[in-house]
Amino acid sequence: MATVRLLLKTLTHGTTSLSYPLLVRPRTQLFNSLRAFSAAALSPPSTAVVYDHQGPPDTITRIKELPPVEIKQTDVCVRMLAAPINPSDINRIEGVYPVRPPVPAVGGYEGVGEVYAIGSEVKSISPGDLVISFPPSSGTWQTYVVKEQSVWHKIDKSIPIEYAATVTVNPLTALRMLEDFVDLKSGDSIVQNGATSIVGQCIIQLARDRGIHTINVIRDRVGSDEAKQKLKKLGADEVYTESQLEVKNIKNLLVNMPEPALGLNCVGGNAASLVLKFLRQGGTMVTYGGMSKKPITVSTTSFIFKDLSLRGFWLQKCLSSDKAKECRSMIDYLLGLSREGKLIYDMELVPFNNFHSALDKALGKQGSQPKQVIKF
Ligand SMILES: NC(=O)c1ccc[n+]([C@@H]2O[C@H](COP(=O)([O-])OP(=O)(O)OC[C@H]3O[C@@H](n4cnc5c(N)ncnc54)[C@H](OP(=O)(O)O)[C@@H]3O)[C@@H](O)[C@H]2O)c1
Questions:
Q1: pLDDT for 320 beyond 50
Q2: Which of 82, 58, 78, 57 is nearest to 69 (CA)?
Q3: Checking DSSP bridges between strand 309-312 and strand 105-106, what pairing results, if any?
């Protein structure tokens, strides 16, 4: 049977046994708990976004109260504060992501919370600490999460929760892609599509910090002029809509900038072809997203005469490799940048009660929207 530190006692509530820290409990409940101090340490009940089978996220997800779960000796119970809705979360619910939790499942993959209670053998984390789920794992869209201590990473309390909640999936992807494929130096340039995405916004700022120029491609849509201005403010050197790049020789657009050795593809289809066109002889395009759901087409000549390389990036693979430890340090570095205001990106914090309207926005039902981050 698990035990938790003295901060926790047990409270009987009807037929269910619940555990609450003494520090946050009303006096009457405290009295009740002292009479019933024998059961296993349990989390509070959790309000969660659940789905019973895969399908369209807006129709199959529902908010459900889940019963308390046992806090084992090496477990940490976290009261979630915020978690984003990322495209991969949507893909997991749809059933099109290669790795997904068995159903029924709770949605979400990354997020931040405050430690609520710890098992008796947990030494490095204390109640009140701010932690992110790292490596991230399924089930962050709920008010209380109980997981083994090794999947929580303690972070500085001064970091705004929306940045802590979102640092792993997208900023870490941006940083890894800048480091892992091409040896880039100050003065070099890179090209990317999907530049308005969080990954894209991070690429721009991390590259600027290293003296690397960015050529950015965005889609033609309402508000594209405003989006261009925003990206330039973040440090983008050039921003083009796809239609602006329907020119005979795309390389004529490169003024005072070397041809890029690295291209980053978030979108596929025509947007990927544009990235390939910018690349220099022997350049590499890394594909990490497929937002247009369209395939990548590569001309025969670009393989033969330009000797281009096509690579792929998947963060999940990185996190389960020998790079996992390095990724933790990278997370701390990225959070440090956000705390100093050197790594910012568009987000909208949405109360948990409004989950389904946030989901609709994340699904693109209302056109382009900032990243939706649920606040619990
Ligand atoms: N491989 C990995 O390990 C890894 C890790 C992290 C992220 N990703 C992928 O990276 C991509 C971006 O993720 P994110 O969270 O940074 O994105 P995000 O902030 O949620 O933004 C979504 C982006 O997709 C664009 N977009 C949406 N629908 C589109 C369409 N039909 N055609 C073209 N562009 C479209 C949006 O452009 P507008 O601004 O014009 O709406 C925006 O740039 C996703 O595909 C995600 O799955 C992959």
A1: yes
A2: 78
A3: unpaired
Structure tokens at 99: 């790795």
Residues 332-361: tens digit of each pLDDT: 999 999 999 999 999 999 999 999 999 999
CATH number of 8-166+351-375: 3.90.180.10
Give the ligand 1 atom nearest the CA of 84: 15
Using most ligand atoms within 8 A of CB, pick from 89, 175, 266, 267 the residue to mutate for ligand 1: 266
| Domain boundaries defined on the chain | 8-166+351-375, 170-316
Over residues 70-115, the pLDDT tens digits come to 999 999 999 999 999 999 999 999 999 999 899 999 999 999 999 9
Secondary structure letter of residue 43 according to DSSP: P
> Which pair of structure tokens corresponds to residue 234?
């973040």
Give residues (CB < 6 A) around ligand 1.
86-88, 169-170, 173, 194, 196-200, 218-219, 221, 266-267, 288-289, 291-292, 313-315, 364, 368, 371
Bridge partner list, 47: 65
Full-model pTM = 0.91
**Which pLDDT tens digit goes with each residue over 24-54?**
333 333 333 333 344 679 999 999 999 999 9
Whole-number Cα distances in Å, 344 to 157, 169, 253, 371, 375: 18, 15, 28, 12, 18
163 is catalytic: no
* Exposure of 224 in the CB half-sphere (CA atoms within 13 A): 15
User: What is the C-alpha to C-alpha distance for residues 197 and 179, in angstroms, rounded to an integer?
Assistant: 19
Q: What is the mean pLDDT of residues 268-290?
A: 98
Domain 170-316 has CATH 3.40.50.720: yes
